[in-house]
Amino acid sequence: MAGWGYRGCPVPRGGPHGTGRRRPWRLLLLAWLSLGCGVGTAQGPALGTPVRVPKPPAPARPRRQPARGAWGPWGPWSSCSSSCGDGVALRTRRCLRSAEEEPCTGDPRQYRLCQLQGCPSGSVPFRAMQCSLYDNKPVLGTPARYRWVPFHGAPNVCDLNCLAVGHNFYYTFGRVLDGTRCGPGSPDLCISGRCLSVGCDGILGSGARPDACGQCGGGHDTCLFVHRLFQGADPSSGYFGYVNVTKIPAGATHIKVTDKSRNYLALMTSDGRYVLNGDWSIAWPGPYEVAGTQLHYARAPDGTESLEAPGPTDEDLHVMVLLQEPNPGIEYEFWLPRGHPQPGRGDASPLRQPQPRGAGSPPPREPPVTPAPVPPPRPGGSAMEPPPRSPPGRSGAGAAAGRCGRCRPAKGRSQRTRHFCQSDFVFQGRILARRLVGQETRYEVEVKTPYRHRFPLVPREYVWVPNTCGCPPLREGGEYLLMARRHVNYERTLNRILLQDDGYARPWTPREDRLVREAARHCPPPRPP
Length: 529
Description:
By secondary structure, the chain is mainly beta.
């Protein structure tokens, strides 16, 4: 009986000296068994036979990407799509490639905004003109005729959506023509049914934007950012008025100044002309045109103010502050082109202090006033006479010591006529606020009825009294007839309304109104300034 080896191959019986007497036949049989029975294969190698390890597959060669074509040069720009207002010009380019090359990437067309002179008044808007082309023409498969006007409530703004006049439906007549505005007031234009924004380079859809310095497509590395906090001018010295903050050079962009106090920001041009909050007159919040840009002035109810302008400015601007209370700090920032001379910290620049009313540096020092000797007490123990009042503007010694004396207000017809004829300002005013400033008193007054003024009057004025004694007596909320003079110092840094302590200030009544109008007949008309 034959035995079975691995995988069922027959093996002859017998030992090494079995029945086979011829050694060559045994060798051939072993060779036949080793080849026929699959010895050494991966399925089941026989014991003692080597195993063949399969070779790893060869890496696949990467497929060669076909080359892409190259764009040729741009052609010339076409004529503008409109004869007035806004329009677009078109230019094209060709993709140069062989049959085996891929198409070029990018757009073969480029559109540029061409802004022409404005259309004549009464011209039909571009979108409305396109809708009107379908007036009185059959649509919707009916013989009905309609008049059409633009409809801006449809989802696709670059479709020609027109509303039937007198009806509650609209119809879409395909796309609008290239160069049509995407919507009322929109700066974007429709091109091939897409709403594209205009880059700063004038190309639609380019995405080019100006950097912080206003350079189209530039990076912020070409700009210098100035951001500082002004904390100078501590008013504890007793002086309140206009103080320089900084100079903003010409060419500045993204300007922002913030003050979180009840002081007032002011702005002056390089030629010394106020554009905001000068002349002790507070402006209304809102937009202002200054230095070739639009400035937005904002003031919150708590007194917080801000000045913002996109720029660039075409001249230097001087930022100032009208101090009413200690300065907590004024923050300002702007961008300048790199290499532009920048202001130093606390730059006072060669600003002449403002000469409009109430503005300026502290009044010049005046020679000290020797107090008048106090007379000795009279015999009999009578009361001491009040000391003589200091001259206007020099009442510091008496006021500081509390020796003010009695107020002597002007009254009577002769006093009324004299003050009226000698005064630069005669007006009815309501006292809004009172504040002690150094050795003087400053009243904020609402001018209600001007009777005489040799110089301009604004709705709100500051009236100064050269003492702190309350003479003449003016009560907050009260209305008075005031006769005052214009005060300009030697340096011409002060220009304000001055009411002498013995000046004419009486409560306003209809009788005072009649009497002051009568006084106007007894003096010549005011001379021009």
